[in-house]
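Q: My labmate handed me this sequence with no annotations at all. I'd like to see what the chain might look like in three dimensions before we decide whether it's worth expressing. Could you predict it?
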Amino acid sequence: MTGALSRMLTIVAAAVLAFDGAALATFGWWSGRVVLVLVGLMFFLSSGLLLLYWRWYRRRLDDIASTRRVLAEEAREMQRLLGERVRGDR
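A: Here is what I predict for the chain of 90 residues:
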């Protein structure tokens, strides 16, 4: 559930940023203000960077989750071996 919510919020944020950038660039072009066009283009490009960063972030979270699963399995195996050892020493 959190993955879907995170994806939705990221897409909405990128869409708002892209729309704001496009609107600002268009307004700058109509009014002949180069600075507004440049700032608008920066906003528009930032929306793409936001999506790229989110994908990188999700891959890192998946890596962490898989590593945690492996470590948890190793810990369970150690507990099982130690339990057998303690029962064998009695």
